[in-house]
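Entry 14. Structure prediction run on the chain below.
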Amino acid sequence: MKIKRTYSTIFAAPVIAALAFAGLSAGAPAAHAQQPKYSQWSDPSEPKPEDRLQGFIDKLNKMIDDAEKARAADPNFLRDLRDLTGNFDRPWRNQVLSDTFVDGDYTKNPGWTVSAGKYWVERGWGLRSAVKSGTANTGSSAAAPSEPKASPEQQAAKLFGALLNQALGGRNQGGQTANQGGGQTPAAAAIIHVPAAVSNGFALEMDMSSWSAEGQLQVAVYQGQFRGEQSPGYRLSYRPGGAVEVIRVSSRGTSIVERAAKATPLEDKKIHRLLWERYPDGRMSVSINGNEVLKTSDRGFRDSFTGLALINGGGDYIVKSITVSGTN
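Output returned:
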């Protein structure tokens, strides 16, 4: 035990000193307040500050790995140190997909495929999809015509029919599934997907705007051949009003991995940035406009993903740009 403490002290000293130096360097104020006559020349081949930080984190993680293998330090100390580096580590170095839709054609470079509903490129805005739900506002200024008031006999017949329908297990006389929305037709989802070799750990950044108070937008990474809403994988879900969820879809069914504790409504018709990060060890986080709204961990899928999909379930959304980066 005495030898382990000695190694721990020896290992900790340079690490703590390096972290302190990095923190002081990052937070040091400018030496001169006045603007110089000539702008400072910077060597384009010089590594960027974020690249230097990542290089430092990579070396530190290598030291932690070596220390774990050699049992050269207290395991609790190494775990805490790895947690600390994890806050700055950005393992997503390989961009696998990027689209801004400025060319007006979503079928090329990369090639998206619409499998349900309708998508189009709104000039100056991005990829758009609008699905009218049964209760959604159609955008017309004219009010919807009201139904004539039913007589007492008609109301009684309607009530009897509803009770009979319920007794028959939710089906009407024609054998079709009864609509539970008071006669309104539920919205069909508009779905678009694109093949992409997305690693199990990924960073997905999407600029989008929401134009309706109804519906749901899901951005999904899926495995295998795309099978629409049944495709297995993870999904980031947004509902108007600000509900954000990470969902897992597998052969066992659909389940919510985590739900944001606080709503973040985006229905102002402005562009908002969603960042969904997944580490190779299963940790996930979701940020909106730079503010973290959700943090969780799930190892339900350990293999890579084969594509990306957008699923509009009854709303009006515009995706201005989308970028996916992987770890290999």
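The chain has two domains: 1-25+49-90, 94-134+186-326.
Filed with the rest of this week's runs.
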